[in-house]
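URGENT: need a sanity check before tomorrow's submission.

F., can you look over the Sugar transporter record below? I want to be sure the sequence and structure line up before it goes out.
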Amino acid sequence: MNAVSTVTLVASLGGFLFGADIVLVALALPYMSRGGSDPVEGINTSLNQSLVVGVAKLMAVVGVFFGLTVANSYGRITALWSAAIGYMLGPATLSVAENMGEIMVGRVLIGVSIGMSAVVVPMYVAEMSSNVDRGKNVATYELLLACGTCFAAASDALLRPEWRKMMLVVIPFAVLLFLLSMFLLVESPRYLLEQDRKEDAKEVLKRLLLNKKVKDDDDEQFNSSLMRSYNVGERGGFSSSRNSHSSSNKGVSVSSYESYAMDQSISVQERKDAELERLAEIELNQIVRTLDQQNLGGGGGRGQSEEGNNNNMFEHAKRIVAKIKSLRSNANAFEATKILIALAAFNQLSGSTAVINYAPRLLAGGQGSQFDSVAHSTSFAISITITKLLGVAVGVYFVDCHSDDDEREEERTEEPPEGEEENKKFYGGRVSLLFYGGIAASLSLFFAAFGVVGHEYLVLIGLCLFTFFFSCSWAPVFWVLVSESFENEHKSAAITVCVASLFFFGAVADFYFLPFIEWNEGVALTFAGAIQLWGAIFAKRNLKETSGKSLKTISESYGLRST
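Structure tokens as predicted:
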């Protein structure tokens, strides 16, 4: 595994814990409230159960702001292992809770950690990735989130109805995230430059660049050079494989070839090192220019130390608030922020996570249903979480797909011929996934709504289809868009607003969805399908394809749209 892949997988453990913690509690609710051998006091009503599920996302709004403050003050790595601490303490508190208040304490701790990891992981992974693989790397966060939901369903199958043990199964993964963050991950070059650690930032960039195409190209050139040199040796009489010279002459031939190959190897390695140094210096200078512009614009940056301690969290919190207020002054950032807030609303109000959280209730609520919400909760959860995992895997593959013309778009001076842009976008990318995936997801919800008055298995099929199509489109693409739609000058403030909006609308959905489906399940699913369809149309009309483009080009495209 290369350095970028290692960074991506370790950081994305935060997504795994997000998915596992959210779903575990939802699956455990029937065992907490059914009045069995180990019930929790005060959790029997649907209102309180909605509160238990939704409070985590509500506190995640606070976690987003707190996580970004820690990331800017002490670094991305510190923010990651800090989130891991909450992922350890929250489930531990839930496992010993005896009443509603103690349950809420555990959910608050988990919610803050969810918000921290949700904002830090995509930002950190995007800063460590190139334009070519940024989408896949950031979408890995959502892929591991889906793995977390599958793990939660499997834990329910093995441990039910021992819900206290279910709460503990995620703690080893939180410990793993804590240890790997502290001892394996390297700090972001951007943060290192903010701390005036230029040489450390260059070393990190060189480690990341070792995995890029230039290394493979040099290896190929090196091998070709050796072949050419060997052929020249044959024609010059060095090789004994095609003549009848003595064995001593043959030995001279082989040693001459090896000596020449060694000289060539040293020469190629020197060229590799020089090229690596040059590319690292170029990327370093680009980050420095961005930070200098940010500093001149009053956003902080490398000049922060003149105002006091660079690691002062209170100062960084004030700067984030100031940056949020300044978003209106930048047409690119403000337009992108508005669009992504709308996408966050469509993402969550369509019931994307609520469907998974309340899947047993959805299936048991149909007219004439023979399903038992508790007895069948495991099979329902496993079916839906597996389709979520498969869907995210498909989305991760297609999210970075684009035509070769996209790679040269920044060099174009003329508008492409009419119809060309639309044709190339059928191949994949962000916009196509949002549009076609959104339409398929909305149709799946309508099908599930029809199943309410038909047969309960139709509801299950519809929910699985919705989960698959949503997971291969809206689920990963939102995080990719958040990570790439803003230049560094406005990135921290915009990410804070967008991710906090996602969790806010997610909390709203968790609060209203359970009472809604208990009132009329068919109407609830139809309403969610209509929101998802509206979101697909909105994305098609308001977004431009960003796959393979630089952050600067993406940001400027929003400004062009606003004018």
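My own read: The CA atoms of residues 383 and 464 lie 7 Å apart. The mean pLDDT is 74. If you see anything odd, call me.
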